[in-house]
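Lab notebook, bench 4. Continuing the backlog of folding jobs that were queued last week. Each job is logged with the same field layout so the records can be merged later without manual cleanup. Today's entry covers Peptidase M14 domain-containing protein, a 652-residue chain. Filled in by technician R.K.

JOB TYPE: sequence-to-structure
TARGET: Peptidase M14 domain-containing protein
LENGTH: 652
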Amino acid sequence: MWLQAPWLSALALLLPCSFGTPNQDRIFKYRSYRETHSFFEQLQEKYPNLVELWYAQDIFPEILPRKITWGTCEGEPCKTLIVRIANKRLLTNSTPEVFFSGALHGDERLGPATVTELASFLCEEYGVDTQVRRLVDFRATWIMPMTNAFGYAAHRREENSMDPNRDFPYLHTRPERCMQTQTARAVNELFRRHLFQFMITFHGGMRALTYEWGSRNHMTMPQRRSTEPPDETAFREVGQAIQAAAGKTLHRRWFYPLGRINDLVYPVEGGMEDWSYAAGWEKSPTPITVCKPNTYGGYAEERTKYRRDSISTLVYLAEMDNYKTAPDNSLGHRLEIWSPSATNGHIARNLRMCLKTIEMTRPEVVVLPPSMPSSAGDGATSLSVQIYGFGCHQMTARLVAVPSSVVPGCLVGEDGGDLEQEQFQQILQKSVKMDATEGHCRGLSLWNASTPPPRVLQGAVPTGEEVCVLIAAEFDQQWARQTRPDPLVTPRSHAARGRLEERYQVKANDGPMMIKARRTKLFAVGGPIRLEATSATTMTAKDTVDQPALAISEETTMATSDPHTSLGSSIWQQARLVPTTTFVNLHPRPEEPEDVTYAQDFFSIAAISFALSIAVGCAMLLRNRQEVAIKANVKDAQTRSELAEMVGKDPI
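JOB STATUS: finished
OUTPUT FIELD FOLLOWS
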């Protein structure tokens, strides 16, 4: 009897400070090669349905044909770790994919720390935050924490005296001088099997967030400025969103200046950035080189010949700090992720950039539970649906009703991209437009409390006919804008073409992965319904199927105490569309006893006081950490001696 609500409240206050809850604060830190491997092995053991690990030398035998020990990492043979974070039960061969490279240069060590914490965050918050669950359920995040495994273990820029970021098949005049490293080959094989829509590659030595172009064949002379990439609008808009996620400095400037690689950094030949953007559509053998290396037993030249449009990633080069390895006290701590400020450490800023990038990998409409409050007259009923755009900048959405005979079970797949062309055309032809809206997408709100309210679509659903209510939407049509693209082609990236083209389909070079997308994307509001008018204000609804898995509303992605908003119920079962029905709580709370004693009240007051004391202690601890973080901003506290020691002029 004594363990009542006040005690539970006290326990809830205590848990974040004393136990390993997902949102518990901790100081970020660097990890060694072995510690990083161990960390991911433990993460996989703890979250087996979300984490998958591979070693490139095991799954890509073509990169090391002689099976030799190509390098020693902390006393053992080097292995290139590959990580995927995704809900295995929902993965398909068309799940949108995003890629993060931790350390292409082994002595630039903020990247591995960032992507390691990213993987931890996605897993730990998956069961807590509905938006994080959406990122993991409907997208696949691929990570190479230590892309250059040898360099990272040895604290060296290169792999066996070879620079991996000069080793990709782009603009090489000597075919034997590219694809020499295990690092580049591992990345190449991963990209041959997957269709990454976005990517961030982390570096160090200066501070900038940059995009294409980054090579001499795409520069104006004599100004030596970058020409415009065909995807300039998409690059710039997504880049601005990523830049905003990282936040500003104490001087109210963006923490990461944004621009093209040639303009803010410098051009290179053989860079991963130009290759990962253009290998699928620029000409071969120039600038896309067919490589013939001899190192490590060689590498078949066929591995650098690519299917048309297969490698077309919107890639960002993030130069994170003027130091190759930023000071430990500049990394920050975990709670900063939710609280952007000028004093944030590096990892919280970078992690927010990663989360925003993952979000943009799949544009979608999030449908909240619908309601049908009243009769609209003429044998119809007024339906109201709240929605918001996610993974996009701009959205145009229409609420439509379609005969269920055209869409059996109202099943449209992820977004209608898998539907046969004939069925898709029938849906468009037979749909009845009920309402429409357009404007900005809402997107992630983990660290932004001022998110706009959802948009409301409403319209009349005819009675007496079984129909499917769908959202038909287009996203980011402004990405088609160009001024002087170089070369003179339409946007080439997977992300842009999947939004802009009437129908976009492409397959990976190897394996089953593909993209099947349309400009107009479809999202089911619920299952088939039949509304029958029994009087002026009384209707009945028929619920024939559960809500498709990929249209689970934000409110239902976490279990609650209300049986009508749990994961076990479909959205249509929750709304029910029956205005005359009164829901009954199937799990009523037990009646409170009438003989509560004063001793129990005293015990409860003592528990609350104790909990408040602990909470105040935690708040003081966080304040102290924030004060330390203020001193941790390297850029804003540099002395002349520190500037003299910087290695920012080293190649990226």
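OBSERVATION: Residues 1-21, 535-603, 623-652 have pLDDT under 50 and may be disordered.
SIGNED: R.K.
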